[in-house]
Write a structure and sequence with these properties.
Blueprint (H helix, E strand, L loop, with lengths): L6 H7 L9 E3 L4 H15 L12 E7 L5 E10 L2 H11 L2 E6 L4
Antiparallel strand pairs: 1-3, 2-3, 2-4
Amino acid sequence: MNNIVSLAEYRKKNGIALPRSPYYTLNATEAQIEGAVNRAAKYLYKPMNGFGTMPYAVVIGYEDKKGRTKLLKSISIYPTKNVMEENVGRKGLRSVCVVAGQV
């Protein structure tokens, strides 16, 4: 059993890049959140596809149970409230998002 090492240890020892977290910060500052919201707001007014469908919401990150804001490296755009709630709900985290005026 002494010969078994974790994949992370093996990668580190052999100079192989470790997988990156989908989050770029685990405790975002107000300035970082404001910047993410401003970027997300631009997507709210652009069609999602060739049919002209406008996004329902743009999720920029999540808040964990300890109250830390985790901003995503890339934002997630959702066409409807149901789709957003299904995806966000699976993670068990509260979303930090910008919601467009669609019903």
